[in-house]
DNA sequence: GTAGGGTTAG
């Protein structure tokens, strides 16, 4: 509510007005009460006033102007049936009545109803006026119907109303939103008068269409024409800067906003938070947030997103909790953005509590919330919950399907990923995107369905009209490499039409490690070092490849090289959540308060594992030690410590969930398989790449990761 | 009495 349009007749606070409103039989007072109901969005007051009007005025019919007020009220409050019924009993509805019905539908996200009402109005030989056309254009724009939009434009042209700025701005925005950019530009150039709304339409749509530079140019041109930007222009400009990562330009504008006092506007403040967040200037975003005089739910949500998208998930969650403390209701926006941080943290318990909050706030049917739930459960390794969340969604879109397929991909369940993919195609409601294909081809690769994966890659353009991107090429290299066709994968890379990326060579190196192809592995590693000389992961992979092949000299060389060039392996850590507390472990960590019990558990497990035939794989020991010392060292890896803690604390029957920030180590992988069988428990390890489900001496990845 | 351009998410 920036311009107070809906309040223009009220000189006192509307809630007070409601309190002192007394039923009064004259039509003027009744109309005022109806208008008030719209302003405070109270369907209760609206209905009560309608009933009072009928009672007071019966047996006389409602006067036309009061009837218009009522249609408008029902339509604006999104009670379309009541609005349409009232109009239908009117023997001669005027253009005002029709426009009230049309605008309400357009504003409440019912563009197709709005267009249907517009058509019905024309059939009833009622001519649209300068108020009708803007709503009709808005509906055509929202419904993405360029042809309908063009017809409305023609009609407004014939009636001469296109010269009205409101009408022209509606047409302008409609042409942009329906993709008829050329028509939009022509219209803009030919407009007899351009107001700020027209300029804003140019700018906001340029940003929406991913042309931020054009929005910035338009802003400069507006200033050169002596135009005064308003809050909407400034939000558009900030969005453009965020989209193009023009951090200094945006912060210059911030200075201008402070001078002109625009930064006091909530929307502009929110735009600034978002802008700084997208430029990764987290401190600046927080400073704007802290200094805001007025915060609304969007401000809080934007701040959550800033943290979530800049790798500070815990901080994001804290802001969400602070918002709750401040009395901010968990909105669909809020919940869906915080759910992504749970997915990132692997925070299943937090995610479940958000799910419960979503149900309590009746937003669990929202498509964003639903998709975020599917995504969160999938990423937290709870595929049954992901399936259930998907089933419960009242409607689904591309993102929902991608989230479910992604869940199966993370698990390595290629058959289910393909089944759901087929279902998605079969339902005919959504077309797959390039993300969908990355997911299914990756699933094929992880599940060993080499032929199916290659088939998908080769036919994706023809079947789905999707041009293969770099990600898809990397998938194919992975697919071939895992299946033992490293040479073919290398040939494939040579014929790629795009320059191979880190993930392409990384996939080849991974495959070479898996199958002991050291010569080719060295080539891949060389390419990787050229692209990113400082990456520790690739050096470790190369060293492990030599170690697995028993080529100790080369393995040591790579390690030494890393040391010489000053590459440090980031500290590996594993964490486990128990009773809402996150317990983090590093290798050889003895600082935990339950260290004694953890060590006792490890000693016991070691005896039991060795009795069952486990041999410690000391190649994963980092130091040059005696064999027995190496055995002790690998036993102290962070994932084993976290697991021992879980076995000490978490009662039998509850699956143990561990998250690791690096790839799970080979010896730990083998040990956890044994432990899952010995203690008879489900153990789920999420590493930086995928899930491992350990059960009964086996892992879901089939030792293929 | 009826109108146009906007901030946050999967």
Automatic annotation (TrEMBL):
Domain DYW per the UniProt entry, residue ranges: 613-705
Matching InterPro entries: DYW_dom, E_motif, PPR_At4g14850-like_plant, PPR_rpt, TPR-like_helical_dom_sf
GO annotation (BP), single: RNA modification
PPR repeats: 94-128, 296-330, 397-431
Source species, domain of life: Eukaryota
Molecular function terms from GO: RNA binding; zinc ion binding
Keywords: Repeat
Gene3D superfamilies assigned: Tetratricopeptide repeat domain
Protein name as annotated: PPR repeat
Organism: Musa troglodytarum
């Amino acid at each position: 509510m920036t311009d107070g349009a809906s309040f223009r007749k009220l000189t006192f606070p509307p809630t007070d007005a409601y309190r002192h409103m007394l039923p009064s039989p004259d039509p003027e007072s009744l109309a005022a009460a109806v208008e008030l109901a719209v302003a405070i969005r109270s369907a209760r007051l609206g209905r009560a006033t309608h009933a009072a009007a009928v009672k007071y005025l019966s047996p006389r019919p409602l006067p036309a102007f009061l009837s218009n007020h009522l249609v408008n009220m029902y339509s604006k409050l999104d009670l379309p049936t009541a609005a349409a019924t009232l109009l239908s009993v009117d023997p001669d509805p005027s253009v005002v009545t029709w426009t009230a019905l049309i605008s309400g539908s357009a504003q409440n996200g019912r563009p197709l109803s709005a267009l249907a009402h517009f058509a019905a109005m024309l059939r009833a030989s009622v001519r649209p006026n300068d108020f009708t056309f803007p709503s009709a254009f808005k509906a055509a724009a929202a419904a993405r119907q360029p042809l309908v939009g063009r017809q409305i434009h023609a009609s407004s042209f014939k009636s001469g109303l296109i010269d009205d700025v409101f009408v022209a701005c509606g047409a302008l925005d409609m042409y942009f939103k329906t993709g008829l950019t050329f028509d939009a530009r022509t219209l803009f150039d030919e407009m007899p008068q351009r107001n700020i709304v027209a300029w804003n339409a140019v700018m906001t749509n340029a940003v929406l269409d991913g042309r931020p530079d054009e929005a910035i140019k338009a802003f400069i041109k507006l200033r050169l024409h002596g135009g005064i930007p308003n809050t909407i222009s400034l939000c558009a400009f900030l969005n453009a800067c965020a989209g193009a990562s023009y951090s200094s330009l945006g912060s210059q504008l911030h200075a201008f906003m402070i001078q002109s006092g625009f930064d006091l506007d909530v929307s502009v403040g929110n735009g600034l938070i978002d802008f700084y967040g997208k430029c990764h200037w987290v401190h600046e975003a927080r400073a704007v947030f802290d200094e805001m005089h007025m915060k609304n739910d969007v401000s809080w949500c934007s701040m959550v997103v800033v943290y979530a998208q800049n790798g500070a998930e815990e901080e994001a969650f804290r802001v969400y909790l602070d918002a709750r403390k401040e009395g901010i209701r968990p909105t669909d926006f809020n919940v869906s953005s915080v759910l992504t941080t749970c997915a990132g943290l692997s925070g299943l318990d937090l995610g479940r509590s958000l799910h419960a909050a979503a149900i309590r706030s009746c937003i669990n049917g929202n498509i964003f919330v639903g998709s975020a739930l599917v995504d969160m459960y999938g990423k937290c390794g709870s595929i049954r919950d992901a399936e259930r969340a998907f089933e419960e969604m009242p409607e689904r879109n591309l993102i929902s399907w991608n989230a479910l397929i992604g869940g199966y991909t993370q698990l390595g369940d290629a058959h289910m990923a393909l089944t759901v993919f087929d279902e998605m195609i079969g339902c005919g409601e959504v077309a797959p995107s390039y993300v969908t294909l990355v997911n299914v081809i990756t699933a094929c690769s992880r599940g060993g369905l080499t032929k199916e994966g290659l088939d998908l890659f080769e036919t994706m353009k023809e079947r789905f009209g999707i041009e293969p991107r770099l990600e898809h090429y990397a998938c194919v290299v992975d697919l071939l490499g895992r299946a033992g066709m490293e040479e073919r994968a290398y040939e494939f890379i040579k014929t790629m039409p795009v320059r191979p990326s880190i993930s392409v060579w990384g996939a080849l190196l991974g495959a070479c490690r898996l199958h002991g192809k050291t010569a080719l592995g060295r080539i891949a590693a060389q390419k990787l070092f050229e692209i990113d000389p400082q990456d520790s992961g690739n050096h470790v992979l190369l060293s492990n490849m030599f170690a697995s092949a028993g080529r100790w000299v080369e393995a040591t060389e790579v390690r030494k090289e890393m040391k010489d060039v000053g590459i440090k392996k980031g500290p590996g850590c594993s964490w486990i959540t128990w009773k809402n507390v996150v317990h983090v472990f590093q290798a050889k960590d003895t600082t935990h308060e339950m260290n004694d019990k953890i060590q006792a558990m490890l000693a016991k497990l070691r005896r039991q594992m060795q009795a069952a035939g486990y041999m410690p794989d000391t190649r994963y020991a980092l130091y040059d030690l005696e064999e027995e010392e190496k055995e002790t060292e690998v036993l102290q890896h962070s994932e084993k410590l976290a697991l021992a803690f879980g076995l000490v604390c978490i009662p039998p029957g509850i699956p143990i969930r561990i998250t690791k920030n690096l790839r799970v180590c080979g010896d730990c992988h083998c040990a956890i398989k044994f432990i899952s069988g010995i203690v008879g428990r489900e153990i789920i390890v999420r590493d930086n790449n995928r899930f491992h489900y350990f059960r009964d001496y086996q892992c879901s990845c089939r030792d293929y990761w």
